[in-house]
Automatic annotation (TrEMBL), chain A:
Upper lineage: Eukaryota, Fungi, Dikarya, Ascomycota, Pezizomycotina
Gene Ontology biological process terms, A to Z: endoplasmic reticulum to Golgi vesicle-mediated transport
Known partners and oligomeric status: Part of the multisubunit transport protein particle (TRAPP) complex.
Compartments reported by the entry: Endoplasmic reticulum; Golgi apparatus, cis-Golgi network; Golgi apparatus
Primary localization class, coarse: endoplasmic reticulum
Protein name, per record: Trafficking protein particle complex subunit
Entry keywords, A to Z: Endoplasmic reticulum, ER-Golgi transport, Golgi apparatus, Transport
GO (cellular component) term, any one: TRAPP complex
Family note: Belongs to the TRAPP small subunits family. TRAPPC4 subfamily.
Domain of life of the organism encoding this protein: Eukaryota
Keyword Transport among record annotations: yes
InterPro entries in the record: Longin-like_dom_sf (IPR011012), TRAPPC (IPR007233)
Pfam families given in the database record: Sybindin (PF04099)
TrEMBL record, chain B:
Protein name per the record: Trafficking protein particle complex subunit
Residues forming coiled coils: none
Subcellular location: Endoplasmic reticulum; Golgi apparatus, cis-Golgi network
Assembly and oligomerization: Part of the multisubunit TRAPP (transport protein particle) complex.
Species whose genome carries this gene: Eremomyces bilateralis CBS 781.70
Record keywords, A-Z: Endoplasmic reticulum, ER-Golgi transport, Golgi apparatus, Transport
Annotated CDD domains: TRAPPC5_Trs31
Phylogenetic placement of the source organism: Eukaryota, Fungi, Dikarya, Ascomycota, Pezizomycotina
Length: 160, 214
């Protein structure tokens, strides 16, 4: 309760964004606010790869595929296993958003950060606009797009 | 058989493109995302087997050129039929009306707004500049550092060149440049682009004769 009272003063911070390709490689990382301990590129690659593996396992765990398919006259949407979506610790929260094609967006925030879904959606939009619609970006390769960086900075700093 | 004969030329409802109203402008807005993806493919296509930035810009220019030729006719036909026929609706024969046509009519048709400036070069009387603070075609394009000279609005420059030459104004090429060192403007409009139009000598001569005739 006490924390809610001080809601205005609490640091609500988006720390870092990582984008992981569908093969598990780190293709983008950007730190918005200091707070997490500094990781060098190698360690970030390991984090991305490890998370990718654990996420793949979590996707396999559940749901168990039905023993026999339901009667075909009832159209059923296949339940797409989502895998890990949130990991939380006392000091940060890791939100994972996986696109239909398997690219993963990992967002490290303060645990109290509100509206992470909204932030994630906007980041995905920026990615679609400035990475996917950029003629000089090759899919699955590291993202080096000036307008994407600028758009992210402008958006994340504004949400604070 | 029936399915293979339908298409743009023979649509299923028997109304060909010639049966449609030429002034369908209200409902003819196109998806910006669809254009962006198409433009990506156009640039990827132009990038094959090019020798350098100048070559790539030339190819983009070539892609835009036929579009300009057609747009000149289409837009003139539209303005002529929508308003009562007056000399202003005919093909421009002087430089200034032509540039006005590009700056306003063409820009409004392509991008939904007029261009941001139209100037004559101080250094060379045969050179004119049209500037756009934020060209629509470059909206999603981030040019890599190693080829930062490249401006993909070379495609639009090709359209302008097509309009000029279609109207009988021979040019020594139209090119797109980043507005660098123009002072002040580039921070607010990092994508500001200047289209430089260089008219041929004979065009300038004709212009002078027409000017004397009044």
């Amino acid at each position: 309760m006490r924390r809610e009272w001080e809601g205005e003063k609490l640091p609500r911070v988006v720390f870092t964004l990582l984008i992981v390709s569908k093969a598990g490689g780190l293709i983008y990382n950007r730190e918005f606010h200091a707070g997490l301990s500094k990781q060098d590129t190698n360690e970030l690659l390991i984090i991305a790869g490890t998370f990718h593996g654990v996420h793949a396992i979590s996707q396999k765990l559940c749901p168990v595929p039905p023993a026999q398919p339901p009667p075909s006259n009832i159209p059923t949407m296949p339940v797409r296993p989502s895998g890990i979506e949130v990991m939380e610790s006392a000091n940060f929260r890791l939100q994972c958003f996986q696109t239909v094609t398997g690219t993963k967006f990992l967002l490290f925030t303060e645990p109290q950060q509100p509206n992470i879904d909204g932030i994630m959606r906007r980041i995905y939009e920026l990615y679609c606009d400035f990475a996917m619609k950029n003629p000089f970006y090759t899919v699955e390769m590291p993202i080096r797009c000036e307008k994407f960086d600028r758009g992210l900075d402008g958006f994340v700093k504004a949400t604070r | 058989m029936a399915a293979s004969s339908t298409g743009l030329r023979y649509p299923s409802n028997k109304k060909t493109i010639y049966d449609r109203n030429i002034n369908r402008t209200k409902t003819s807005e196109l998806s910006r995302a669809a254009f962006a993806y198409l433009f990506v493919e156009m640039i990827t296509y132009a990038q094959r087997r090019v020798t350098g930035i100048a070559d790539l810009e030339k190819r983009l220019n070539t892609q835009g050129y036929p579009l300009g030729l057609r747009l000149l006719d289409l837009l003139l036909a539209r303005t002529a039929s929508s308003a009562t026929t007056s000399p202003a609706n005919l093909r421009p024969t002087r430089i200034l009306p032509l540039l006005q046509f590009i700056h306003t009519t063409l820009w409004r048709h392509l991008f939904g707004r007029p261009a941001d400036a139209l100037e004559r070069s101080a250094a060379n009387a045969a050179e004119y500049m049209i500037s756009d603070n934020d060209p629509l075609v470059n909206g999603y394009v981030s040019v890599p550092k190693e080829i930062s000279q490249l401006n993909c609005a070379a495609f639009v420059a090709g359209v302008i060149e097509g309009v000029c030459e279609g109207a009988g104004f021979a040019t020594d090429g139209v090119s797109a440049h980043w507005a660098e060192g123009a002072g002040g403007g580039e921070d607010m409009w990092p994508g500001k682009t200047i289209f430089l139009i260089r008219f041929r000598e004979e065009v300038m001569e004709r212009e002078e004769i027409l000017g004397r005739a009044g």
